[in-house]
Amino acid sequence: MKLKAIVLAMMTLSALTLAGCGSDGEKGATGATGATGADGSNGQDGTDGRDYTAANEWFMAGQDAVTKASGNSISDSAGKAKNIILFVGDGMGISTLTAARIYQGQQQGESGEENRLSFETFPYSGLVKTYSANQQTPDSAPTMTAIVTGVKTKDGIISVSDAAVRDQCSTSTGHEVMTALELAEIAGMSTGIISTARLTHATPAATYAHSVERNWEADSDMPQAALDAGCKDIASQLIDFPYGDGPEVAMGGGRTYFMPNTETDPEYGRAGRRNDGRDLTTEWTSKYSDGAYVWNRAQFMSVDTSSVKHLLGLFENSHMQYEADRVNGDGAGEPSLAEMTSRALDMLKQNDSGYFLMVEGGRIDHAHHAGNAARALEDTVALSDAVRVAIEKADKDTLILVTADHSHVFTIAGYPVRGNPILGLVRGVDASGAAATTYSTDSNGMPYTTLGYANGPGFGFGSAAVNTDSNRPDLNLYAVTDVDYRQEATVPLGSETHAGEDVAVYAKGPGAQLVTGSVEQNMLFHVMNYAANLVGRAEAAQN
User: Fewest CB atoms within 10 A around its CB: which of 29, 154, 283, 316?
Assistant: First the structure.
């Protein structure tokens, strides 16, 4: 099928078909010329009365921003990048980066503040505005959609434009937006998806699936009306992926979402979540004669990357372990994020047409929601380790982007002396500027930690509350640097929330010069498209 036909069928907003479309059912005007030189002529047919204007505006604004930026003394020409590696730290706000940088440095015996995470050495960086089409503070579904499609959408919606309504199946038809990974597959590139969360979770799902409800991860999660209307669960969309030869690598958690409810998980004995009887892991190996399915680290390490061309790895029945818990040992064992990244690159680099790889540190977000800074920082360092692997293995013609989908209400406060343990109680400086002999205290004479949260479950260890009265606990009595410690929270909530401030983006390789200043999140897709000419390469592959 020609790419134009594919794009029109999906009503995507790629530069090939992008045009302004009126809400009165008239055919849209001729679209603007894209950054890659692709003509935006064939306006979308609006005879069904749908209004595509808002979605077009998101896409066109991002495209225009890159076009203008590329004309301002950017030496890298369009299409210079052969490969793209996109790293996403879920919930990795700037305060998380700062604390993780210090944490890693202190783990290495330094004071910490002078340390830099692997990607903080990249030559280009900027700030990214993360609001979604309908919320100041977003969730991961619209933010990742913006990054991989160039279109902002509503919270809870995955790679479907903001013309759709969340949880309303019928509103998705005609509003699906094509992703960078889909374009890469059409172009004949190899593709990979890696996450420490479930592969069906919002961030990884946005690369390959289209859904008006991020929680429709298995068919058992969907209302019957949505199934009857033809909407597909997210897990099945990975297996039924219609472009190219499908993703070459897909690794993360979420095993039971791919298993029928008549089978039990090999590690925990839990029944699968699928009501439709499909065993998607078996379908994967049946679909690919050169494919393999693994569910533990031993199997993963035994894979021959020279002969296995399609690898599915599902290492937990739900999310993968936090890095701190993985290191301390778990059941059947799991590969680290760095190990998954390394082996994925070994496979993807064999394609002379290039590759697109997305790697998510998914559990940074989950630790923050639990008010547990230690695990969030450990997983941020693990993402940095994965980026370091990519730096070592990637060729010079590879654009590497490192960013976050959103931030968290995570704070670094007080006036601790340089080198003070980042997870510890605040110890300030005395009159001479040296470390004080006592901890800093609040107005009631109580010590406090450097790290905290503006809201969330608050003080405690693990899931158990340690203090039940309304006053602050005496932290002198508790091991605040323990990995299970939950930092205090100002506003009591069952789960800490995301935050709405900008996140950082770091870039290295061809096209990285476009990543400067303050940008809209959906511009990042257009940076990748400019760098690797994804649309142009996809179109050429169809001719």
Answer: 29
Locate all alpha helices (DSSP H) within 192-330, ordered by sequence: 202-205, 224-228, 234-239, 280-287, 297-302, 323-327
Phi, psi (degrees; rounded to nearest 5) at 98: -60, -50
Q: Mapped to the 3 state alphabet, what secondary structure does 389-406 carry? A: HHHHHCCCCEEEEEEECC
Alpha-carbon span 378 to 361, nearest angstrom: 11
* CA-atom Rg of the chain in angstroms: 23
**5 or 223, which is more confident:** 223
What mean pLDDT comes out for the span 513-530?
Answer: 97
**Pick from 34-43, 228-237, 434-443, 510-519: least confident:** 34-43
Q: What letter does residue 513 receive in the DSSP assignment?
A: G
- Position 362, amino acid: G
**Is residue 303 classed as helix, strand or coil in its secondary structure?**
coil
Cβ count within 10 A of residue 503: 25
Alpha-carbon separation of residue 104 from 115, 341, 348, 351 (angstroms): 8, 20, 30, 35
The answer to whether residues 34 and 18 touch, using CB atoms and an 8 Å cutoff, is yes
Measured distance CA(76)–CA(235) in Å, rounded: 38
Task: Decide: 263 and 271 in contact? Cβ < 8 Å.
Answer: yes
User: Does the CA dihedral 442-447-449-452 come out positive or negative?
Assistant: negative
- Report which of 403, 402, 355, 345 is spatially closest to residue 81, judged by C-alpha positions: 355
| Sheet (strand 451-456) strand order | 410-412, 451-456, 489-492
The pTM assigned to this predicted structure is: 0.91
Spatial separation of the C-alpha atoms in residues 387 and 396, rounded to whole Å: 15
Cβ atoms of 128 and 88 within 8 Å: the answer is no
Coil, strand, or helix at residue 384? helix
Number of neighbouring beta carbons within 10 Å of residue 318? 17
| Dihedral sign from CA coordinates of 55, 56, 59, 60 | negative
Take residue 255 and report the two structure tokens written for it. 């095993």
Q: Are 515 and 505 in contact (CB under 8 A)?
A: yes
Task: Give the active site residues.
Answer: 140
